[in-house]
Amino acid sequence: MHPRGRANASPMTPEPPNVLSPEESLLVARVKDGNTRAGARLMRLVDDRHPRAQALLKALHPHRRGARIIGITGNPGAGKSTLTSELIAAYRKAGARVGIIAVDPSSPFSGGAILGDRIRMNAHALDTGVFIRSTATRGHLGGLSGSAHDLVAVMDAMGFDPIFVETVGVGQDEVEVVRLAHTTVVVVVPGLGDDIQAIKAGLLEVADVFVINKADREGVERTERDLRTMQGLKSGAGGGDVPVIRTVATSGEGVEALAALLSARPIETEGPRALARTRYVLEALVRERFAREFDKALAAHGGDGLLGRVLQHAADPWTTAEALFESVRDGAS
Ligand SMILES: Nc1nc2c(ncn2[C@@H]2O[C@H](COP(=O)(O)OP(=O)(O)OP(=O)(O)O)[C@@H](O)[C@H]2O)c(=O)[nH]1
Ligand SMILES: [Mg+2]
Questions:
Q1: Contacts of 117 (CB under 8 A, 6+ apart)
Q2: Which of 105, 234, 109, 110 is nearest to 172 (CA)?
């Protein structure tokens, strides 16, 4: 019943997983040389969680260059994509090749967001010095996505620097994904008034820089004051450690200043912050792997049938979870 795969593949001597075929080696070589088509191909494999993607990423790893990674997050419609597009222009003017990863929160309601991003960044569509990619926050099976990180790795090896990761700050996972960045920009807009608390605590926590975008609107002063107050409350001191920059993304106002501020920030390669970033990346990769294995284990244990038994109290959740965990553990080796 089982298809044998390639005719010459012996079941006793499986292909060493990390050894690349000549075609795969060529693909990796092209990616590190910055070839756009090769890069796009590898990113597709990464996004599809193709079985060969990891081996390719591992081979690419020695060619990473250490690009600056900038996270951009904020409430829906705050102007993140417009701002990113302006930042791209600023960095392009300075001669940089810029990568952008637009993270889709994978909600059924966000179908238009990515399209919107694409249109807003259309100005850069024909520029080979700009690479724009979209991806989903969650792995296909609900885990925290490791693919944003993997796409960053590919762009970094291709020589794009800086790399922007834009994500909508609506849920924990969506905010969390910017933790893989060296610097996180949180975009807010004026006019929130008393509702500034509507900016999720999670958003405040990840901010290295606040941007008050749409500064052409009323209430900028108040928003800035509120932000500084919240900072003060958080740090317990005078606050204000986190810089606040005003922009009008639609006219480009303030964008040069923002780009200058971002470029001046050190890229931390050691210390607690760098370790936390690394920890996040590893956790995302492990969780994603776990989510995949969990789904397999659940299916192997009867899928909906098993869920039904737990639901009907015919099986207890603890014993069932133990059995599933053991399957995940044993299957993952
Ligand atoms: N008045 C004003 N409008 C702006 C400014 N920046 C962006 N906009 C408008 O705000 C709307 C949303 O902008 P986007 O850049 O798509 O916002 P976003 O945060 O990327 O949106 P999502 O990705 O859907 O969360 C667009 O209509 C922009 O033209 C600004 O500085 N001032
Ligand atoms: Mg956007």
A1: 81, 102, 132, 134, 166
A2: 105
229 in Cβ contact with 240 (< 8 Å): no
Contact between residue 80 and residue 73 where contact means Cβ atoms under 8 Å apart:
yes
Q: Is 246 helix (H, G, I), strand (E, B) or coil?
A: strand
Q: For atom 25 of ligand 1, which residue has the closest CA?
A: 76
Whole-number pLDDT of residue 124:
73
CB 293 within 8 A of CB 332: yes
Residue 187's φ and ψ, nearest 5 degrees, are: -95, 125
Residue nearest to atom 14 of ligand 1 (CA): 79
Mapping DSSP to helix (H, G, I), strand (E, B) and coil, where does residue 323 land? helix
Ligand 1 proximity of 69 Cβ (cutoff 6 Å): no
Q: Which amino acid is at 18?
A: N
pTM reported for the whole predicted model: 0.85
Residue 197, pLDDT > 80, answer no
